[in-house]
Every structure is written in C-alpha cells, then in structure tokens.
Amino acid sequence: MEEIRGEQVLEKIRNVKIQGANEIAKAGINLFTKNPTKDFAKKIISLRPTEPLLQNSLDILVKTSKKNKTAKDLLDYIEKSKLAIAKAGSQLIKQDMNIFSHCHSTSVIEILKYAKLKQKKNFVVYTLEVEPLLQGRQTAEELAKAGIKVIVFPDLAAEEALRHCDVFFFGADAFTKKGVANKLGTELLCRLARELNIPRYSCGVSLKYTKKLKIEYRSGKEVWDERSKNIQVINPAFDFTNKKYLSGVISEFGILKFDDFVKKAKKTVNNF
Ligand code: RUB
C-alpha cells in the first residue's frame, strides 16, 4: 500500500500535478523518509531537473544520520520562510495597485493572500494563461477563492497586461550567483517590465540556491500531442533571468538586492 502511494506521488511530481518548487520539495522530502537511500533520492531528483530546493534538501538528507529530524527541520524551514516572504512581500503592496504575476508560485500566492486577508488591502492581479499547462489560470482560481480580483490575458497579450501594472512578482525555481530560473517567459516579461519601469521581484526561499543549473525540457506532447510526423515541438519549462533585470529578491531574509541575497543564500545552503 505504502509502495503504491509512493509511486503515485512520483507520478504526480513527474506530470506536474504536484507543482511549484516548494510543493515538489515538500513531497520529495516526505517520500524520501519512507525509503531513505541514495538511489531513491537520485530517482526523485531526476523527475524535475530544475528544482534545487528538492535537490539541496535530498542532498542534505542523504548525508545526515538524523534523517527524520532533518526532514522535519527542512519542512519547518520551508514553511516559516513562506510566511516571512509573505510578510516582506506584502509591504510592497499599496492600496489599489495592479500586480502582475507569472505562472503558479505558492510563494507569490502567499504574499497576495497575506496582503488581502491579513492586511485588508485592495488590489487587482494580472496574469497570463501560461501555456502549455495553463498554470496562470490555476493561480487565478486560487486567488479568486481568496476574494482577490484577477484579470487573465492570453499569453501574447503580455505587454498589454503589463502596461496596466505597478509591480511584477514571480517565483523562483533556482537562484544562481548570476540570476534566477523560473517558468518560461519570466525573462521576456522582466525585460518588458524594466522597459515599462515596473519593479520586478523574484520571491522564494534561499534553499533554492545552486551552483549547477540545468534547464528542464519537457515532452513536446504537453504542447501538441497529435501532430504530423515532420513537426517537432520544443518545450523548455523554464528560462533564466539575469540579475540585472531584477529589482530585488523577496526571501526569508526580507527584501534584498540580488548580490546581498546570494551571500546569505550560500550560507543557508552550506550550513543547513
Ligand atoms: C512553476 C514555477 C514557479 C516556481 C516557484 O513551474 O515556475 O514560479 O516553481 O514556485 P512548474 P513556488 O510548475 O513547471 O514547476 O513559489 O511555489 O516554490
């Protein structure tokens, strides 16, 4: 029974039913504790190659002798960081702002919910649909349930949507010393937002910091399943945004300039 449930979790991570760096890492940590071997850690990590929060967490767990305690410490750290990120990020939200968000980041959603539910602020969220898996719609549904007004645009209306916005919040799958990897489109949206003078913040826990970044390419079937045999589809899941396009990072350390954030992030990953 336990084995079947484990297989189901692996499948959900693989097919993006469990989604967003935080949720993937939490599911991976819990799964690893049921079969704490190096090989199983490798198998879990291989499902989503651009997820250093998952990789760092499992590397830490493989090395330690106190697996269950460290797993709990990691899960607590991720949860506490999420609240710290929500509190810090919500400070940037002013009454009646229009906020642009991209894809589906639980860190960004927590910021928006915190500003709405705890601080009673009014604002509108703008998002794209985010093909191929329409994760922008998923964000829209979650925010709408929290009483937040959301306006959804088709992906190619990105510039039109951004023109209405005061700030751009997005998640992070990976931080490196040079910038951030996040859902495909983030880099283009950041460049556009910079041109329009809209501040741009990547939001995420510092345990997503890594030295070795690999961008995940997913099956072309996600984009177009039944197609003629001479048509190839290329489906990169993420892109990389250089730090020069960012106004700052919102993490458990608060709101920091990119290089200041990286100094602290390295220490968290090395000393956990
Ligand atoms: C999700 C995505 C999110 C990050 C951060 O893409 O790009 O912005 O994972 O999410 P995918 P969180 O679904 O392809 O992994 O803030 O929840 O960690």
**Nearest-angstrom radius of gyration?**
18 Å
SSE order in H/E notation? HHHHHEHEHEHEEEHEEEEH
Largest sheet composition:
7 strands, mixed
Class derived from helix and strand content = alpha/beta
In terms of DSSP E residues, the strand content is 15-25%
The domain tally reads 2
> What is the tally of helical segments?
10
Can you put this structure into words, describing what you see?
The structure is a single chain. With 272 residues, this protein is of the alpha/beta class. The protein has helices spanning 2-14, 21-34, 38-47, 52-63, 67-90, 106-118, 135-145, 158-162, 186-195, 258-271; strands at residues 97-101, 123-128, 149-153, 167-170, 174-176, 179-183, 200-203, 238-242, 248-251, 254-256. The strands form two sheets. A seven-stranded mixed β-sheet has the order 3-2-1-4-7-9-10. A hairpin with a 2-residue loop joins strand 9 (248-251) and strand 10 (254-256). Helix 2 (21-34) packs parallel to helix 4 and helix 4 (52-63) packs antiparallel against helix 5. The relative contact order is 0.13. Ribulose-1,5-diphosphate (RUB) is lined by residues 16, 19-22, 103-107, 135, 171-173, 182-183, 204, 237.
